[in-house]
């Protein structure tokens, strides 16, 4: 199998892995088989799904480097876009099912609740990354593309705080996520350091 | 069993089940012989009639309790629905068994509820204890359909069975010095997994405690439940006896009570201890006082609808029970005493 073939198959599996659970969850929620509160269930599922996909996106380059499989890097854009897709359904579900599409209430909640504006700013970053992901945008941005896309690092922390803050008491799960995110950032510390101090870039 | 009265006529709230259904249930009970027999027989014999509320005499070797049926009609004719029983018993906050809503149902079987003992003590002239059987036989049981409003902005409509808290307090002869009533849940880490690990139990202090001001506790709405949907309480819902304070957020309605103590000082309450800025002592349902992380202006009524079939309703002050309880808080700044 050529690398092209392999990449095709891996991408097909990514599509399947990303779309199957969300489809099933919507099916269960619509047919009232997703626990007592289908709205909470779908909002939590898409939210945590977006966070998981964000973490996987961050892992792609490390995996490619460690296993010396450069072609694997070509899956990162797809996984990143699915991360945005989950985040977008998360926001949409909150607006639709939690707030009944009331625009003023949506804005009001956004302004009033720090945990929501943190999540929302994370979402805005993901949105910018998604719209600048097509190849022509990448060409147009040139060197700056990487600078823009490094915003994934602050986004990962914003999204984490949003997740942590939304919890009433139980913080085990958020702490595990924090550990994973921090270790990923630690692996990328050189890159992040260069990004934060652009003057020292060689 | 003798259903002394139901609140269905008492409340004009259309949230509660239609009276006709209640009457239907009464006639069903009559046909089954419960009501008639209950009226004729003396008190000791009545205890036997109440036996259908308890587990079978020959209990299985496992600790799992057998819940007994009453052919309860779950839907009324006015179209206002009770929350389906399986949702009431599968979507619970009971951190003693874990913080996920599904945890209590999955893990509460480990809890032994019989034998059980509830102590009533503190500033009372006649402290006493209730054994498991007493919970079902010492007080006249009633059915109350109450809306339970969770601080997380969802609500359920639940038919509880139990007796007014005031009846129990009256029996203890509350001393004139008493101003508050404190409640304590069981502390038994070997049966309650959340109490063994802060990771499972959500890092809140155990045993769980709650409290009411004495006049709140004496209000006729304050209720001690030993059953729901015409069956004894499932463990995840707070077996064998729990508090139901329908005008306050759900966390005030402490489960699996072991001790009721009358005091002259405001008792510590678990959520007030762990996050005082988010959970006040009073915790009255108030659409005008938001939780820091979510609005309390409206709530989602848990029914049997799917994602596109949700019922979202405006939250009412005191959860709709203002007529009965607002006078308790006359002159109080409810934004400060939230």
TrEMBL record, chain A:
Coiled coil spans: none
Cofactor (UniProt): heme b; FMN
Classification via InterPro entries: Fe3_Rdtase_TM_dom, MsrQ-like
Residue spans crossing the bilayer: 12-30, 42-67, 79-96, 116-136, 148-165, 171-187
Location(s) in or outside the cell: Cell membrane; Membrane
Pfam families: Ferric_reduct
Domain spans labelled Ferric oxidoreductase: 47-158
Keywords: Cell membrane, Electron transport, Flavoprotein, FMN, Heme, Iron, Membrane, Metal-binding, Transmembrane, Transmembrane helix, Transport
Signal peptide: none
Cofactor: record remark: Binds 1 heme b (iron(II)-protoporphyrin IX) group per subunit. Binds 1 FMN per subunit.
Bilayer disposition of the protein: Multi-pass membrane protein
Function, as annotated: Part of the MsrPQ system that repairs oxidized periplasmic proteins containing methionine sulfoxide residues (Met-O), using respiratory chain electrons. Thus protects these proteins from oxidative-stress damage caused by reactive species of oxygen and chlorine generated by the host defense mechanisms. MsrPQ is essential for the maintenance of envelope integrity under bleach stress, rescuing a wide series of structurally unrelated periplasmic proteins from methionine oxidation.
Subunit structure, as described in the record: Heterodimer of a catalytic subunit (MsrP) and a heme-binding subunit (MsrQ).
Similarity comment text for this entry: Belongs to the MsrQ family.
UniProt-recorded name of the protein: Protein-methionine-sulfoxide reductase heme-binding subunit MsrQ
Organism listed in the record: Catenovulum adriaticum
UniProtKB/TrEMBL annotation, chain B:
Enzyme class per UniProt: oxidoreductase
Cofactor info, note text: Binds 1 Mo-molybdopterin (Mo-MPT) cofactor per subunit.
Swiss-Prot/TrEMBL cofactor(s): Mo-molybdopterin
Enzyme Commission code: 1.8.5.-
Binding residue positions for Mo-molybdopterin: 92, 95-96, 150, 185, 237, 242, 253-255
Catalytic activity, reaction form: L-methionyl-[protein] + a quinone + H2O = L-methionyl-(S)-S-oxide-[protein] + a quinol; L-methionyl-[protein] + a quinone + H2O = L-methionyl-(R)-S-oxide-[protein] + a quinol
Span of domain Oxidoreductase molybdopterin-binding: 112-271
InterPro entries, per database record: MsrP (IPR022867), OxRdtase_Mopterin-bd_dom (IPR000572), OxRdtase_Mopterin-bd_sf (IPR036374)
GO molecular function: oxidoreductase activity
Keywords from the named record: Metal-binding, Molybdenum, Oxidoreductase, Signal
Oligomeric and partner information: Heterodimer of a catalytic subunit (MsrP) and a heme-binding subunit (MsrQ).
Function text: Part of the MsrPQ system that repairs oxidized periplasmic proteins containing methionine sulfoxide residues (Met-O), using respiratory chain electrons. Thus protects these proteins from oxidative-stress damage caused by reactive species of oxygen and chlorine generated by the host defense mechanisms. MsrPQ is essential for the maintenance of envelope integrity under bleach stress, rescuing a wide series of structurally unrelated periplasmic proteins from methionine oxidation.
Family per record: Belongs to the MsrP family.
Cited NCBIfam families: PRK05363.1
Protein name (Swiss-Prot/TrEMBL): Protein-methionine-sulfoxide reductase catalytic subunit MsrP
